[in-house]
Amino acid sequence: MLVQPKEMEGILLVDKPGDHTSHDVVARLRGKLKMKRIGHAGTLDPMATGLLIILVGKATRVSQYLVSLDKEYEGTIEFGKVTDTQDADGEMMETRPVPPFTEEELKAGIRSFLGDQYQTPPMYSAIKIDGVPLYKSARKGEEIEREPRFIRVMSWEITRFGVPRFDFRLRCTKGTYIRTLAHDLGQKLGCGAHLAALRRTATDKFNVSQALTLDQIQAMTLPEIERRLIAPRDAVPSLVL
C or N: which end of the chain has fewer Cβ atoms within 10 Å? Predict the structure, then answer.
């Protein structure tokens, strides 16, 4: 009797490139690992790079726990330009003059977004209303009423001050749209803004420095990849399993 080979199981940390959707990454890994049971714990927008937690085999059962973990990002916000998607991938909707505000004025604006709050998800998102993803309605020019969602921004630091662009580091809870924070900050400061670049650097204890690029994974053998898998028991509390 033929014995079926044991299916891989575990968590793989991947550094997503900016020219892939999260689904693209999953599709490439399904091809490489020759298995279908692969998912991810927390979508990254196509423009964004950085840490994507991939769940392989039976590890997909801990997805809900891993999705709920806090995230850390680094990125760039550009003032004076408003886009329909709130990031650099979108169509330009308007441009506004940018006042020569100081770093202290920018910090004051940022401080107003710290802590617990409700955020209205953007129209260009995968959230479904009546079974239809919002982005599909947005592409038709439709504006759908969205229910604000609870989020928390634990920290938001300026890492390089500049006008009209500045760099930042931010920690937040799951479900936070960083591009919406960028948009709302621009509205608050009166000049508009969009998210020019974004990189997820960490999800809880997992850091992008531990992650493999798709090119690295493609060059590895299956046993080499399997050795890089993190066991679910090492990633989540035992009570979850």
Answer: N
Read off the pTM.
Answer: 0.92
The residue range of the domain holding 89 is: 71-203
Kindly state the average pLDDT of the residues 129-153.
85
Evaluate whether 201 touches 74 at the Cβ level (below 8 Å).
yes
Q: What is the CATH number of the domain that holds 188?
A: 3.30.2350.10
Are 55 and 206 a contacting pair, CB within 8 Å? no
| Domain annotation covers residue 2 | no
According to DSSP, the β-strands at 49-56 and 193-203 are: parallel
- Among 147, 154, 145, residue whose Cα is nearest residue 118: 147
Query: How does pLDDT run across 176-215, given as a tens digit for each residue?
Result: 999 999 999 999 999 999 999 999 999 999 999 999 999 9
Half-sphere exposure (CA, 13 Å, Cβ side) for 166? 27
Structure confidence at residue 3 as a pLDDT band (50, 70, 90) = very low
Q: Is position 93 within any domain? A: yes
From the list 15, 45, 87, 184, the catalytic residue is 45
The stretch 130-152 carries a mean pLDDT of 85
Catalytic residue check, 19: no
Same domain, 81 and 107: yes
